[in-house]
Each structure stands twice: as structure tokens, then as C-alpha cells.
Prior knowledge:
By secondary structure, the chain is of the alpha/beta class. The chain is built from 19 helices and nine strands. Helix 14 (318-327) crosses helix 15 and helix 14 packs across helix 16 (353-363). The chain is globular, with a radius of gyration of 25 Å.
Amino acid sequence: MKRIGITGGIGAGKSAASEWLREQGFAVYDTDREAKRLMQESGEIRNALVDRFGELVYKDGKLNRGYLAGFVFVDEASRRFVNGVVHPVVIADFMSWSYATGADVVFVESAILNECNLRDIVDGVIYVDAPEEIRIARTMQRDNATREDVVKRIQSQTDAKGNVTFTVDNSGTFDDLARQMEHLAASEGWKPEDKVKGTVKTASNTEKKSGTFWKKFWAAVGILFALSVVWVVILKWLPIWFTPLMLRRAIEAPLEGRDVHFERKWVSLDEISSKYISACIASEDNLFATHYGFSEKGIKQAWESNKKGGKLRGGSTISQQTAKNVFTFGTRTWFRKGVETYFTVLIELIWGKERIMEVYCNIAELGDGVYGVEAASRKYFHKSAKKLNVEQAALMAAALPSPRRYSISNPGPYMRKRRGQIARLIPKMRKFPPQE
Length: 436
């Protein structure tokens, strides 16, 4: 599959180019429109905005855009925060959407292709260009705006012209633009998918197409199931050096004004202090050794919280957390919970408890850019994970629920209290893995 970005300055006509592609039957993702939808529907975005700006940011269940604008347009830090929350969710949604289309080529329209890091995941960029005076005139007419306002908007927009694959001149009519787009599509071999394009069908054709659709659908389900099983089997034996969560953090970091860095070192389970393993079980999932991947008590508590409209909770066991971090981007959505649940069942069946714990200890986030107990142990205590004592193991486990919020290197009152609680539980925990 190829993913092609479409961008251009204000009034240049990128939307017109996208419209031509849709008319031909190509699949086009509009980031501006989908971002507005996701800001309304995404539990992850909602929770983050409410935490930062207060309950008033959503009014009567809907995003209060005027209220949010009062922060974003006057405070650069607030604008960067909102972008850092929204952009990764939009990117994840686009990736999911692009696979769902089943097309050989899809397009994504964005005025800020570079700023939201979409440029790094597309295979090419179409830049729609037009002289500035034409752009000004079009925008004034379209938005009923003054020339002064339009010029300010053009000057404030980052120019992505230097980082493009194809340039389309839209200084003429729509027909002129269409001819250029048609030539570009033909020269690159881009062809629309019949199922995307759609045609007028008779009743009998519709029935045939429906039967074909379901055959293809179940065939795709079978293939995805087989691939997922093979994937899990392979990961039973190989160190897992990179996860979707790490990719998400890499995308978020520059949007939040931070450098991208990773500290991680894979070690086997027998190279990890038993005290740290006991601390994780005591802190996160004290029935880990006996359940089948899910905690009935945790699920009930999560269900009650979610019914009351609280933050989307998962009642997660160590197995679920491992599945979430290895196989999802960690977004707070019901779709992600479904994927997490599916892979939790698979890893419980295929990996077993020891491998799940080994993976969990090696990929769990333990600070900004710090993943796994070995890297964290060396960073915070200058020793290997094998040599962690009770207090150190308890402190690291205390940070697991929110490792970027709670500091291991400089623990506050809550962390010190939680460390003591976990340290007292460690001697009471059964040894893991259990002795034969």
C-alpha cells in the first residue's frame, strides 16, 4: 500500500485536488475533519483536555470550541499541548483507516503535513500551488474575510513546498487542475479501487457484490487471525526492542518540545531481581500467577467507573498491560480494549506466565524515554536489575501506573508512601516463577 499526502498553502486548492481524487474513486482522509470528530469521540483526547483545561472544555457532552480557543490562540504552550494530544490519535486513526480501505493507494489531506509528523509515514507528497494573489482572492471569497486577515493567515502558515514529491499548479480552472491530477495518477500508476469508487448497480449485482464482500471479509478475518497467531509465536522467542507505545512517544516528543530518546536493554527473566518481580505483582496484579489474563474484580470496578462517565479504565492485569504495550498504541478507546483483550488471550495461551512477565519487565515505561527494568535500574540506581534491593524494587514498581508523572529519581510524598507499602508486601508474595 502507498500513502500519499496532499498539502498546500491557504487557498491553493488542496481540497479541490482531494475532491477530484474522491470523484475518481480514490480513498482520501481529511485530517482537519477527522481531528474534529476525534476530539469529540476519543476518550483519550477528552480526558487529556479535561485534565488540562477543566470540565468546561466540554459543554453538554460536546467540545466547547470557543472556550478551548481562548487558551490555544493566546498561549503557545496550550496550543502545543493540544497538538501533542490530538495529532498522535489522528495518525493512529489514519493508519487504521488506510488498512481498512484495502486500497493499493490512499491519500491524506493536511495543511500541516510536516507539523503533525504525517510526512514521516507517507510515501510521497502532492503540493498544490498557486500564486499568492490568487490564493488571497480565493480565501477572501470562500471565508468572507478581509484581505488583511487572509494575508496574516498566509504569513503564519509554515511553507512545506521544499519537502514534496509532486507539484500541481492550480492557478487556472478546476478542469486544468483535473487534467494535471489525471496525468499524475496515470504516470504513477494509481488506480482507484472498485469498492471505494462505487457504481450504480442493479439489484442482482448488489446481491452478488454483497456475497463477494462477505467472502472477502471472512477471508480477511482468517488471514488476520493466522498472522496474529504467527506474530505472537515469533515474539515468544525474540527480544522485543520496539513497541507501538515507543512509536507513539517518539511522535509526541517533538510536538511537546522534547527530544526523542530511548533507553532500553533487554535481559532474561533470571537476570531480574526476584524482589522487583514480586514488587510488580504486589503493586499491579497480585493474582497474576493464578488468573487466565483477566481480573474479575478489576473488570467490575472498571465497568462501574465507565458507567458513571469517569475516565476509561481497563481493570488491567499484567497480562493485559503487556498486550496493550506490545500490540496497541495505548489509546483510550473501546477498539483498543478489544484488540488488547484478543492479544491477552493469545499471549496467555502461547507465551505463558514466565514469558509475559519477562516481556512486561523489559518494555514497561519507567520514565521519559526509559523502557524496561534493566535500563531504569542502571539510570536511577547505577546497578543491574539483578542487584535491586527491596526499597529500590518497590520504588520502581510504585511508578508503574504513571511513570512520566511519578519520579523515581526524586520521589515525592506519595511515591515514598507507596514504596513503603509495596516493600512490606514483597516478603509476603509467593516466589515467581514458582519452584518445580
